[in-house]
Each structure stands twice: as structure tokens, then as C-alpha cells.
Amino acid sequence: MSEFSNEYPTHDPGWVQEMHANHYLQSWSKQGRKPPVITGAEGSWFWDSTGKRYLDFQSQLVNANLGHQHPKIVQAIKDQADKLCYIGPAMGSDVRSELAALMTEITPEPITSTFFTTGGSAANELAIRLARHYTGRSKIIARYRSYHGATGGTLSLTGDPRRHLTRGDMPGVVRMLDPYCYRCPMGHTDSANCPVSQGGPHLEELLMYENPQTVAAVILEPIVGTNGILVPPDGYLQSIRETCDRHGILLIFDEVMAGFGRTGKWFACDHWDVAPDILSSAKGINSGYVPLGTMSVSKTLADWLKDYPLPGGLTYAGHPLACASGVAAIRAMQEEGTLAKATASGEYLRSELAKLADKHPCIGDIRGKGMFNAIELVKNRDTREMLVPFAAKEDAAAPMSEMMKFAMNEGLYLSFFSNCIRLTPPLNISREDLDLGLEILDRTLEIADEHY
Ligand code: PLP
User: Closest Cα to atom 5, ligand 1: which residue?
Assistant: First the structure.
């Protein structure tokens, strides 16, 4: 390469790992790791500098809903980059307006208008800010088994133990229990008799202590993602909606992981025809090719905002490259029948998992909708003793990390949380690749069986 060359150097993979280990700070995982150096990807696959290929059974961070390098999204980003890379959020831009119109088309009916953000955490931060601004109240009710982001406010909303790491949590967060029927927090076996699984009765009791006049919003993932794919019983979301309405409390649905066809519908809440006042999304909106998130609001809120705008904004809100990729991804999903594909592949996946459960006693529960699925692993099916304790680390979590390593070695990229394996492949994965992943999973589960 000459001094004036504008070609990028192709670095030696060893150098890349060295710099990664010593100079790249990554949240969550331990510093100093030398991960595989990924050099390319296509469809449901990615590969590293040694030529090893990995089948992406988690769609990266459950965002590559259309797989890797979808040609229509890549082309839209290139075309937009040629035309206009950046223009401030207050200016008109064709792709921004087009994406706002598309969001209105695919979100549940009362939702009419959208703010754009740089991801899911920023969308949820904005949602809390708006809920407090609109209601003049400060408390936010969030659930334990939840993940809402990694910024100050959203990590405080997050219920799982990651929030322990935040020091100085955002004040005003009240915690609610979850409709986790496989391990009912109230010990019920029949969700019809459980106030937590019904939703409204549990929320109503909390409000009796908290004073509803102080509560701005309830935020929840309609189907919980990171914390183990928890699908609520029928009637749950409706009951929460009705309770919120009785007390003038806003309902925020965090669809960051479950949205954009992941569950076989545009949004998880569509399975029960329950709409929120505020809907946050990100990830699958553009398969993660450019950072993008949204906070969409009902017509009532949109009209109110005309007189009382939300102060402050994001430099990169409605970034043209992100909006162009969002438009291309949503249109591709419409043209390619992606929602129907996700529904059919999800049904097939769960029926194959049921066959694996006949063979592997360690599978305690199989749950999910569309391509948003998990298996929960146990030491004993009758007692439901967990394979590893909740949020276990290091030695106690060894069987899970052993399985992760085994699968990765076999070329299957799987996602683990506590004693669950999440199965969230791209929505358009081929049947052949789905079968290949299941075959490697079958062998991986033998490790868990040894602990049964
Ligand atoms: N909300 C949910 C439900 C999520 O799953 C995530 C990320 O995994 C977030 C919010 C945070 O989104 P981001 O990482 O884009 O900030």
C-alpha cells in the first residue's frame, strides 16, 4: 500500500485479535478475549478468517431478522449514501417520511407517529421521558424478568440481575412479577387462578400500595426475549391494558426484540390484538445493518405533542442511511412473505424440538411463537430443578458454557441465558439449514443430559 493509497489495509487476523483484546472495550463480556475474526456473512451464515463457517441460530443479537447481507437492504444503503448521507432531524427527507408512513401502516391502529432513535435503549429512554412529561407522574412499573437496555434509565428498568451493576438506579421504578407459568412466582399450576398470570389483579394490588396517581406508565415486553422467551397466557395483555386505562396510566410495549416479524406478526402484541400507547422498537426494523430504533405513539399522544413538544433530541434521529435500510427491510418482508415464513418455520422448529424432548430428558420446557423460541433445561423434569441456578456464573454455569463452546466448534451459533437456550434463527432460514442446526443442537444437548 503506498502512502497515498485509499485502499483499506487487510489486517492480519492475529493483529485484529491483539487489538481487540488490548484496546477494544466491550460491555458485558470479560476484557482481553480473542474472539474469531469475522470476515464475511451471507443469509443464515457467517464465517471467520480461518474459513470456518457458523450457522447463525440467534440472528446475531436477535436483530438480523432477514439474515446477513440481504441484497435489497445493502443496495438501499448504498443508494442513499450516494444521494445524501446525513441531514439534521428537523429537515424533510424522503426516506424518513417513507419510514414514518410505513411504521404507521404496520403498527397497531392507535399508533400514528414515530420518533426515530439510534437503538432500543434510546427508544425506551424516550418512552419513559414522554410518559412522565405527558402524565406529570414519575413512577414506572416494570417487570423482573425483563431487559430494556443498557443506558442509565433503561438498565434501571431492566429487572434481571444485570441492573445490580448500575450503582445509583433511576428512582421511581416499581417492580411487578411476571407471568412465567412454567415457574409460577405464586406457585400456581393453573394460570386462570393466578393473579400474576392474569395480569390486571396483580397490577391492581401494586397500585393500591403505590397510589395510581403517581404512576406514569407500565413498561413490558409483550413476549419476554432475553430473559427466556416468556409467552403470556391469553387475556394477560388485555387485563393489563384495562387496568392501565382505569387509572390513566400509559402502557409501553417494548417490542425491540419481538417486533418486525420475529413472532410471525409485525409485533408480538398483534397476537392478542392489544395495542399500547407507546411502542418502542429497533433491531429487526432493518436487520441491524445500521443503528436504528423507534418510539411510536398513539394519535392522542401525537396530538398532545403538537402543543407540548418533548424537549431535547438526538443528532442521529432519523439518520437517512438508517431510514433507507428500514424502508428496504420492511418492504422486503412484505414482498417476500416473511411473516408467513416465520410462522411456518416456527411451527416446524417447535415440532422438531418436541421430538428432541422425547430423546433428551434435560428439556423441561419448549416455548415460543414464530421464530422466537427457547428451551429450558432441567436436572429433573418432575421437580423442574434448573440445570444451572438462575444467573449462575463461572463453575455453576459450566454445563451451559460447555454447550456453547461445543456448538460453536460444530459451527452452530447459539444463544444462552441462565438455563435457557434461545432459538431465534433468521426468519427466512432454509429448511435445510434449520435441520442442520437442529442436528447439531441434538448432539449439544447430550452434554446437558449428563447432568440430569
Ligand atoms: N429492549 C429489549 C426488549 C431488548 O431486547 C434490547 C436489546 O437486546 C433493548 C431494549 C436494548 O436495545 P439496544 O441494544 O438497541 O439499545
Answer: 257
DSSP-assigned beta bridge partners for residue 422: 374, 415
Task: Quickly count: other Cβ atoms within 10 Å of residue 381's Cβ.
Answer: 14
Region of poorest pLDDT, from 61-65, 149-153, 201-205, 246-250:
149-153
Q: Where does residue 191 rank: exposed (0-12), middle (13-18), buried (19+ CB within 10 A)?
A: middle
In this predicted model, which residue has the larger pLDDT, 423 or 20? 423
Closest by alpha carbon to 254, among 283, 214, 234?
A: 283
| DSSP H/E element including 193 | none
The tally of CA atoms less than 13 A away on the side-chain side of residue 113 is 10
Q: Which residue's entry shows cell 436477535? A: 62
Segment 125-150 shows an average pLDDT of 97
Atom of ligand 1 lying closest to residue 257 CA: 5
Cβ–ligand 1 distance for 147 under 6 Å, the answer yes
Sign of CA dihedral 349, 355, 358, 360: negative
Confidence of residue 189 (pLDDT cuts 50, 70, 90): confident
CB-hemisphere CA count at 13 Å for 375? 27
Q: How far is it, in rounded angstroms, from Cα 451 to Cα 391?
A: 18
Work out the end-to-end distance of the chain between its first and last CA atoms, rounded to an integer number of angstroms: 57
pLDDT tens-digit series, residues 239-287: 999 999 999 999 999 999 999 999 999 999 999 999 999 999 999 999 9
**Residue 240 backbone phi and psi in degrees, to 5:** -65, -45
Name the residue of 148, 160, 163, 278 to mutate for ligand 1: max ligand atoms within 8 A of Cβ: 148
**Joined grid coordinates for residue 26:** 466491550
Query: What pTM did the predictor assign?
Result: 0.96
